[in-house]
Amino acid sequence: MEKEQFEDISMDKVMKNYDFNKIYTGEIIKGKVIKVTDEEVFVNINYFADGIISKSELSEDSDIKPSDIISVDDIIDVMVLSADDGEGNVLLSKKQADAVKVWEDLYNAEKNSELISVIIKEEVKGGVVGYYNGIRVFMPASQTSLLYRDNLNAMVGQKFDVKIIELDKNKNKIVVSKRAVEKEEREKAKEVLWKSLRKGEKRKGKVVRIVKFGAFVDIGGVEGLIHISDLSWKRVSEPSEIVSVGDDVEVFVQDFDEKKGRISLALKDVSKNPWDDIHIKYNNNTIVEGRVTKFMNFGAFVEIEPGVEGLVHLAEISQENIAKPSDVLSIEQMVRVKILDIDEKNHKISLSIKDAVETSKEYLKYNDEDNGTNLADLFGDIFKDLK
Questions:
Q1: 289 and 359 both lie in a single domain
Q2: Which of 107, 186, 354, 375 keeps 20 to 30 A from 91, CA to CA?
């Protein structure tokens, strides 16, 4: 009994003489890192014995190397697990000390709707797991993005700002959302966009959806519609002929209604309507070359320049009686047509293939046969069918 008292008194004297701190299990103290190995970290805690942090007590991330997060001379907070493990060692924990402060930070972040930065570690069933200052967090697959994400593994190793949507220290449960952050950013972007939007201006955007009647383009948080008729000045049967999902495009703002959340866009250059000077470029009875673009029961459409199409009525295709345009024509075939009438206001042109042939025959009749020109040169394969 006297011996134990003597040892206790001696220890007190030693600690006082050398100005050592007293330490207690469970308290958090500061220390200076003096050595880092693959399995342990040694810390000077101003005590008669140095403290030891085992690898398992460094971080919740069991795969992390001590040297990845700790360096010699670092000043760190540690929790005392044991002032004496029976062999004179002081056992410490960095992850438990961090957890105390981290949980305080987490509750403050949740209370103030602040974002936290999380590094994604791995894909798991139903989502991904990440770490915030050594604390494990879970992000459900549904919360990884506003858009559908089919490859969660692509997030591994990346750092994201996320919002806390569920927090329970007793269950050691932290659920976060990147989707919520994107949604807030999108709403802010919408406000800015609606205030700055002007009719007639050009905007950069990305094609996000294609439907039968057009394409939807995200121009910065808000989607606008390009109607199929505004994709190009030329005839378009399917929007996919012009654009694809994911395409970066430049569009014109034609009109918008903020209350209804609608924006009308145009991909075609609305400032360069090919019909505006149609009478300057073309006159009635002029013969021009064009490309067959579409068949109808009543005739064929021929494009004489990008964005300008005319109709060759069934009766104007051939001198012979034909049941349908495809009897003598094919899509993409180049033909010569005669302009019969131009309706600039309604964007309509009446054309004739048979009159173009007859006019050319009359022209050739008065030209030297030695010049080598013949109807086959002028009309190609179609002439065979129109003799």
A1: yes
A2: 107
Which CA distances in Å does 86 have to 83, 89, 91, 356?
Answer: 9, 7, 11, 109
Q: Which residues contact 64 (CB under 8 A, 6 or more apart)?
A: 58
The domain boundary residue, chosen from 182, 207, 225:
182
Mean pLDDT value of segment 224-234: 91
Are 83 and 25 in contact by the 8 Å Cβ rule? The answer is yes
- Answer for the pair 341, 284: CB distance below 8 angstroms, yes or no: yes
What separation in angstroms does the CA of 184 have from each of 220, 268, 306?
13, 32, 43
Read off the tokens for 344. 């600039």
Give a yes or no: residue 273 inside a domain: no
Query: Domain range for residue 226?
Result: 197-266
> Residue 372: what pLDDT?
52
The label of the residue with tokens 């069991």 reads 62
Instruction: For residue 22, give the DSSP letter.
Output: P
d(CA 269, CA 252): 7
- Residue 247's φ and ψ, nearest 5 degrees, are -65, 135
Task: Write out the two tokens for 341.
Answer: 């009438």
Is the pTM value of this prediction over 0.70?
A: no
Residue carrying structure tokens 């002439």: 383
